[in-house]
Specification:
Elements lengths: L1 H6 L6 H13 L8 H17 L12 H6 L7 H7 L14 H9 L6 H5 L3 H6 L3 H12 L7 E2 L2 E2 H9 L8 H4 L8 H9 L7 E5 L8 E6 L2 E8 L11 E10 L5 E5 L7 E6 L5 E6 L10 H14 L9 H15 L6 E4 L14 E6 L5 E9 L2 E6 L11 E10 L5 H4 L2 H33 L18 E2 L7 E2 L7 E2 L1 E11 L3 E14 L2 E6 L4 E7 L12 H15 L1
Parallel strand pairs: 16-21
Antiparallel strand pairs: 1-2, 3-4, 3-10, 4-5, 5-6, 6-7, 7-8, 8-9, 9-10, 11-12, 11-21, 12-13, 13-14, 14-18, 15-17, 18-19, 19-20, 20-21
């Protein structure tokens, strides 16, 4: 047992036992034999027994190979010392050079390192090495290599430009913590590890409107960025981001949560993580959200940020009502929200295109964010942001990939009735073909009296790789500029409903795949066209563990707003 403990680096070391032996000898206690000496003598006896004797047989010691042949797996150190003048092999983990221990400990997860520090004083001292914790921060949380630089920006610039752009140079030293005295171990122990559960993608509970929150490690901070679609109708523009909260360390090595909502800079906030895959934010100083001009100034500022225009520039009366309704509904929360975790869909080799997040046009409701995923022979688009008619979490598009549509020539594509008839014929042909196939199988079984398989249906004409595309006349489109060639088309349905998600129903449509990052949907009965463009942002800590977990998440999303 003592040998096993010494090999694992646990328990009393040989140096301590040797010192204890010398003290006992100095006190006249010569009766106790050193454990190492006893092991050496036992090893010599075993080697003599296996080697065939002692000095008479010409064999005095046993080499390493002899020890392996004995099956003990233990090399006799005493015999090696008498025959070899080279360096001794380490008999325990604690005897390894410090640089090897640093490399070994760097491979362990950060949650295991505190237990390693309890083994011995040497391990505890080595775990103070900055290299170990820097590697854990980089591999587990994607932190940059330099703790005090992000994208070539110093820690001071990070605070001023990214987190609090209103800080003046004279007030800087009062607000900026002393990051120069922090190390990776402090950041990992007091910031990253305690809040690791909130990293990733989340959907806020804002009634029918939903949203998309991405919590990431950004330099010396954990920041919750709310992703906003581009201004309508520029669907191919990049996403806009707005910070809602941040978490960072102070000189006392304690983490602090601050609310970033409003126009007066960061202020005191709180985060609660009670349930699994759910957390809540609370602002403790909501007066920071108010503006001197009252609600009218707040509405004008919100409208310019949300839509990029003034109310006078929006001539559509129904659209003005929708915008005012959204402002009143969303501003009442004051950044006191509950968030539920969402995942990106897993990718399969058979997918028509890479699944993920897309932003698309929805008429007077503006741009909304959807999640495209594949489930066997169907492609589904689920809303992450919604509107009073079809709220977030609902299945906005359901495409049947087993029903491809071959587009006619351009002159026939301009006719909405012709295109609708072609799509509906494709939808009904599949069911008719199945009925005919089943009837033929029953007839063959009646004639032959055997369970012979039914004849295979004739293969449909496969569409070309790329074909010209044009919208039919009379179809409304928010984007006048859209792709003029497409790869494939499929029959699908879209979800429509009245205000308050009343009388929901699915209406026929045509799914048009333009390229790897864009697709469209023609709402045939509504005579409307929606264009979707992929989100190109890097979203870490957001992929579903498996397909079963992703489908369960989709079911929960629909129940949140149903």
């Amino acid at each position: 047992m003592a040998v096993c403990a010494r090999l694992c680096g646990v328990g009393q070391s040989r140096r301590c036992r040797r010192r204890q032996q010398q003290n006992q000898q100095g006190q006249g206690s010569d009766s106790d034999m050193d454990e190492e000496e006893e092991e050496r003598i036992v090893g010599l006896k075993q080697s003599d027994a296996v080697g065939g004797g002692g000095p008479e047989s010409g064999t005095a010691t046993a080499g390493p190979s002899d020890a392996c042949e004995n099956g003990s797996g233990h090399v006799n150190r005493g015999s090696l010392d008498s025959t070899s003048t080279g360096p001794q092999h380490p008999q325990s983990l604690a005897e390894l050079p410090p640089e090897l221990l640093v490399e070994t400990f760097s491979l362990l997860p950060g949650t295991a390192l505190p237990n390693v520090a309890l083994v011995c004083k040497k391990f505890r001292q080595i775990l103070n090495t900055e290299t170990i914790w820097r590697r854990r921060c980089m591999e587990e949380f994607g932190m940059k290599e330099n703790l005090r630089e992000v994208e070539g920006v110093s820690s001071r610039d990070i605070y001023v430009k990214r987190v609090n752009p209103r800080v003046k140079s004279g007030r800087f030293m009062k607000l900026l913590p002393d990051y120069e005295h922090m190390d990776y171990r402090d950041v990992y122990t007091h910031l990253l590890h305690p809040y690791r559960q909130i990293l990733g993608l989340w959907q806020p509970d804002i009634g029918p409107y939903g949203g998309l929150l991405n919590v990431v490690v950004d330099g010396l901070f954990i920041i919750g960025w709310m992703y906003l679609p581009p201004h309508d109708p520029r669907v191919e523009d990049p996403m806009r981001r707005r910070p809602l909260f941040r978490i960072h360390l102070w000189e006392s090595k304690t983490s602090t949560v601050e609310c970033m909502y409003g126009h007066k800079g960061p202020h005191k906030g709180d985060i609660q993580t009670g349930k699994k895959d759910e957390f809540s934010t609370k602002c403790s100083q909501t007066d920071h959200h108010r503006m001197p001009g009252g609600r009218q100034e707040e509405f004008r500022t919100w409208l310019e940020e949300e839509w990029g225009r003034t109310l006078e520039e929006i001539f559509h009366e129904h659209m003005q009502e929708l915008i005012l309704m959204k402002f009143i509904y969303t501003s009442q929360y004051d950044n006191c929200l509950t968030y539920r975790r969402i995942y990106l869909p897993p990718t399969m080799p058979s997918d028509l295109l890479r699944p993920g997040l897309f932003k698309g046009t929805y008429g007077s409701h503006g741009l909304e964010i959807v999640m495209l995923s594949f489930h066997g022979n169907s492609a589904r688009a689920t809303k992450l942001t919604g509107d009073p008619n079809v709220p977030a979490g609902q299945l906005t598009l359901d495409v049947d990939l087993s029903r491809p549509v071959v587009l006619p020539e351009l002159k026939h594509q301009r006719n909405i009735e012709e295109l609708s008839r072609l799509a509906m014929d494709t939808a009904t042909a599949e069911g008719a073909c199945s009925d005919v196939t089943a009837a033929e199988g029953v007839e063959a079984e009646r004639v032959t009296g055997t369970d012979s398989p039914p004849p295979e249906p004739s293969s449909s004409i496969s569409p070309p790789e790329s074909q010209p595309f044009v919208l039919p006349l009379g179809v409304m489109a928010r984007n006048e500029v859209y792709p003029r060639t497409c790869r494939k088309c499929f029959y699908g349905t879209g979800l429509i409903a009245g205000h308050g998600f009343t009388s929901p129903e699915r209406t026929p449509g045509l799914f048009v795949l333009f390229d790897a990052d864009r697709f469209g949907f023609i709402w045939l009965e509504l005579k409307s066209f929606s264009l979707y463009s992929r989100l190109t942002d890097n979203l870490a800590h957001s992929y579903a563990p498996n397909m079963e977990g992703f489908e369960a998440m989709l079911g929960n999303m629909q129940s949140w707003t149903s």
